[in-house]
TrEMBL record:
SMART domains reported for this sequence: Lactamase_B
Gene Ontology molecular function: any one: metal ion binding
Keywords attached to this entry: Hydrolase, Metal-binding, Zinc
InterPro entries for the chain: MBL_Glyoxalase_II, Metallo-B-lactamas, RibonucZ/Hydroxyglut_hydro
Superkingdom of origin organism: Bacteria
Source organism: Bradyrhizobium neotropicale
SUPFAM superfamilies the UniProt entry points to: Metallo-hydrolase/oxidoreductase
Reported cofactor(s): Zn(2+)
Annotated CDD domains: YcbL-like_MBL-fold
Pfam families documented for this protein: Lactamase_B (PF00753)
Domain Metallo-beta-lactamase residue range list: 26-206
Protein name: Metallo-beta-lactamase domain-containing protein
Length: 226
């Protein structure tokens, strides 16, 4: 388990976050909480639920919700199990990813992942919606392309976003999976994420986080080098 201390947290002292890498895909399951209330959300519990539960225990937060950025197995494989363990609702992704959530078991089997369950979230999310945990509110941005129902979560006050697999440090989400489209993905990045502002830092679904400004300047998929 690695800890994420971003500049927004140190500047505002209103939120905390830890990243728990899960599954063979090393997916960034993320726990975000408000300060000082310690009310928390788990974003993208892809699997390894006992590991996630132990991280929650060590952090001392109270998880009240599960949020999903999209429906791929490495992001949702443990969602039903974690919902049952914590007795909390699942919010997201966009309903366009329903076909993925209806086939979690089949998707997991392809990678030897057992114990997965198909499920329906308690709330689908769409562009213009907002979600909250404790005193933190996040706006929902529908960002299709990696998957049809991908969403990003943006907190204006903290200048922080969780973008799932839409955008990475130096790269973008793959688009060769069912429902993926590269042109749609790039459009989502340019019309939804880049306008948030260069000062916005983000956590993504895999690897290190970055900032909108850094990616605008150096990401070859955005600059046109790719």
């Amino acid at each position: 388990m690695t800890e994420q201390n971003d500049t927004q947290e140190s500047r505002q002292a209103k939120a905390g976050a830890i990243i728990v890498p899960v599954t063979l895909f090393e997916q960034n399951c993320t726990v975000i909480w408000d300060e000082p209330g310690k009310k928390a959300v788990v974003i993208d519990p892809g699997g390894d639920v006992p590991k996630i539960l132990e991280a929650i225990k060590q952090t001392g937060v109270t998880v009240e919700k599960i949020w999903l950025t999209h429906g791929h197995i490495d992001h949702v494989g443990g969602a039903a199990e974690l919902r049952d363990a914590l007795k909390v609702p699942i919010e997201g992704p966009h309903v366009a990813d329903k076909f993925l959530l209806d086939n979690v078991v089949e998707s997991g089997a392809r990678f030897g992942m057992t114990g997965m369950r198909n499920f329906t979230p308690d709330r689908w999310l769409d562009e213009g919606d907002s979600v909250s945990i404790g005193g933190l509110q996040f706006d929902i941005l529908h960002c299709p392309g990696h998957s049809p129902g991908s969403v990003a979560f943006f907190n204006k006050e903290l200048r922080f976003a969780h973008v799932g697999d839409v955008l990475f440090a130096g790269s973008v989400g793959r688009t060769d999976l069912p429902g993926g489209n590269h042109a749609t993905l790039i459009n989502s990045i340019k019309t939804k994420l880049l306008p948030l502002g260069d000062d916005v830092g983000f956590i993504c679904g895999h690897g290190a986080g970055s900032s909108i400004g850094q990616e605008r300047m150096t990401n070859p998929f955005i600059t046109g080098a790719m």
